[in-house]
Amino acid sequence: MQTQVGIIGAGPAGLLLAQLLDRHGIASVVLERRSRAYVQGRIRAGVLEQGLVDLLHQAGVGERLAREGQIHEGINLALGGRLHRIDLTALTGGRHVTVYGQTEVTRDLFAARDAAGGVILEEVEAVRPRDIETDRPHLVFRKAGAEERLDCDFIVGCDGFHGVSRSCVPPSVQTIVEKIYPFGWLGVLARTPPVAPELIYASHGQGFALCSMRSPVLSRYYVQCSLEDCVADWPDERFWPELKNRLPAEVAASLVSGPAIEKSIAPLRSFVAEPLSHGRLFLAGDAGHIVPPTGAKGLNLAGSDIHYLSRALIRFYRTSEEAELQGYSARALARVWQAERFSWWLTRLMHRLPEEGDFFARMQQAELAYLVQSKAAMTLLAENYVGLPYD
Ligand code: APR
Ligand code: PHB
Asked: Mind listing the pLDDT tens digit for each residue in 243-252?
């Protein structure tokens, strides 16, 4: 097999890249180890920065997003038993975020690839990049038991945190920076009306909680939990009272509970692999970096990576110039580190961290008390939450 760009991974990063390249006449093949049904079944955050919304429109997948996406002009911090609204739009000169599940983004991208005749090979095994330090890299893999080869000009690893591509960058040139957080997030999806029209991030003595949503009839909730916990430790009978306990009384009183239709526990980490390229191999999205979900930046960083990389590849195929490709890693990482900082800052501010001691807890309380009464402090939060500019 032969193509121009070989893409590993059919998550949001891989599918969006394939679609953007296709719009500029550049051929790609996407290799995905799971089935399409499995990929589309993943429940992931869906708070989209405007930059990603614009990119999805450029990719020709903005129609349902425009129809069903919910514009959010504010978020709420719950602390001291009451809500404090952060007016994102007023504080950022008119900007907002759009709530639209990542599941929907992926579904729209799959549909667009199908409509364009895009090549997505599902359930492939043992994908391995080869000759990435030459100008004729290729991928080897197994499909239905047969050994296959895909010759291409470039390979892009969009294979997530547990993928293969990151390990193809030689350790001698690779730097990994990581922080593991000492707690997890228990997430619940329920067919219940969201407790509030905007997201609520709650700081509480028992731990962090987050009230989000997927639609007017589908709620998404999270509570901070121990890394020792498993889903069986959190039956609905424990989850709903504990969530309510961490929310202001008037919010808890209006919360509609119901059977969890999805429940999972995820660890939290901050992680960056530098550089995001080596030879003709490029990394994008979770393959290169991970943020704690507190700032809802994971999907949005995949978006900015793909913005920079697709632009560089389009320039190469139009002009044969490689400068923008060579500058991709530094450009993408500059924005990645800003999102890493914001996600780390909001995570350490909002979560209960007993191992940090009483003084740290008092500093958290003091910072939160200052934050909710300082326009300057709320502006810092708002600017980062709606997303820093791509360029
Ligand atoms: N070969 C082929 N496909 C692979 C391999 C492999 N060796 N390893 C992983 N994959 C596939 C996974 O099955 C998955 O479908 O790569 C895809 C990676 O997708 P994501 O993990 O969603 O990563 P990304 O596209 O970067 O999107 C980042 O997704 O995980 C969330 O929170 C994250 O919102 C962020 C977004
Ligand atoms: C979600 O809706 O899943 C979500 C929203 C905001 C976050 C994290 C997760 O910060």
From this structure: 999 999 999 9
The answer, yes or no, to whether any atom of ligand 2 lies below 6 A from the CB of 165, is no
Residue nearest atom 6 in ligand 2 by C-alpha distance: 296
- Is the Cβ atom of 47 under 6 angstroms away from ligand 2? yes
Same domain, 167 and 300: yes
Q: Is the peptide bond preceding residue 293 cis, with omega within 30 degrees of 0?
A: no
Instruction: Identify the nearest ligand to the CA of 293 by its number.
Output: 2
Q: Cα(158) to centroid of ligand 1, in Å? A: 6
* Pocket of ligand 2 contains residue 293 by CB under 6 Å: yes
Å from CA of 381 to ligand 1 middle: 28
Clarify whether residues 126 and 28 are in a common domain: yes
Helix (H, G, I), strand (E, B) or coil at 131: coil
- Residue nearest ligand 2's atom 9 by CA: 45
Mutate to test the pocket of ligand 2, among 195, 212, 297, 351 (most ligand atoms within 8 A of CB): 212
pTM of the model: 0.98
Same domain, 107 and 245: no
Q: Is 293 found in the same domain as 255?
A: no
Tally the domains of the chain.
Answer: 2
- Please check whether residues 166 and 191 belong to one and the same domain: no
Residue 231 CA, chain-centre distance (Å), reads 22
> Of the bound ligands, which one is closest to the alpha carbon of residue 194?
2
Rounded CA-CA distance 294/369 in Å is: 19
Q: Can you name the residues that pair with 272 across neighbouring β-strands?
A: 177, 289
* pLDDT per residue as tens digits for the range 174-217: 999 999 999 999 999 999 999 999 999 999 999 999 999 999 99
Q: In the prediction, which pLDDT does 67 show?
A: 97
Residue 86 within any structural domain of the chain:
no
Residues spanned by the domain of 308: 5-72+97-178+269-346
Kindly state if the Cβ of 46 falls inside 6 Å of ligand 2: yes
- Residue 157 near ligand 2, beta carbon < 6 Å: no
Closest residue by Cα to residue 156 from 317, 287, 271: 287
Same domain for 56 and 124, yes or no, is yes
Same domain, 158 and 186: no
Q: Residues near 3 by Cβ (< 8 Å), separated by ≥ 6?
A: 27, 28, 29, 119, 150, 151, 152
**Is the domain of 106 the same as that of 129?**
yes
What is residue 286's DSSP assignment? G
